[in-house]
């Protein structure tokens, strides 16, 4: 392979992650946390001194999953925390852009997520019931991120994301610095894998 068609990413851990054929052996949680803390949700178009990072979003989705289903397993909560982990390498493309790209972006993303899952002792693919729960939590998170941070009116956000189920508690969102977002993500990971 020549330099012109290189398909791997060098991580700060020294690992080289092949993007076309990712190996679980090249996945490190510190690389994931570092990358996700530096990837901005909403293409950085959020209020505050810092971007709202994918790392913060992942922690939030894991919390929502637990609130929606309090007896969910630790393994399922870990999958919730890692649901957007591929974005540590490929970034957070907003849904309209993914649709415009025209390639099978989801397949690419799923191969990387499978390698991440295997690395941490999880099934390569989440069970269908959990995928449904993750989508619901992701949409709830998106509604609150949109209205609290991204300038959407509640009516506009409801049109695109629906609303939170009655009775769910939702925190006031405040974007963290990259160092704090990274530390918070790693702390949740360590608690869930303890």
The total count of strands amounts to 2
Number of helices: 9
Which quaternary structure do these chains form? Answer: single chain
The outline comes out as globular
Distance between the termini: 40 Å
Following the backbone from N to C, one meets helices and strands in this order, namely EEHHHHHHHHH
Strand order of the largest sheet: 1-2
Question: What would a concise description of this structure say?
Answer:
With 194 residues, the protein is mostly helical. Helix content is 53%, strand content 3%.
Task: Please provide a written account of the structure.
This protein is 53% helix and 3% strand. The chain has helices at 29-37, 54-68, 74-81, 87-90, 95-101, 105-119, 128-148, 154-161, 178-193, and strands at residues 8-10, 16-18. A two-stranded antiparallel ribbon has the order 1-2. Strand 1 (8-10) and strand 2 (16-18) form a beta hairpin. The longest helix is centred in the last third of the chain and has 21 residues, at 128-148. It starts with 7 loop residues before the first strand and ends with a helix. The model has no long low-confidence stretch (mean pLDDT 91).
Features:
single chain; two-stranded antiparallel ribbon; 194 residues; mainly alpha
Write the layout of secondary structure elements.
Blueprint: E1 8-10, E2 16-18, H1 29-37, H2 54-68, H3 74-81, H4 87-90, H5 95-101, H6 105-119, H7 128-148, H8 154-161, H9 178-193
Antiparallel strand pairs: 1-2
Helix pairs in contact: 1-9, 2-3, 2-7, 2-9, 3-9, 7-8
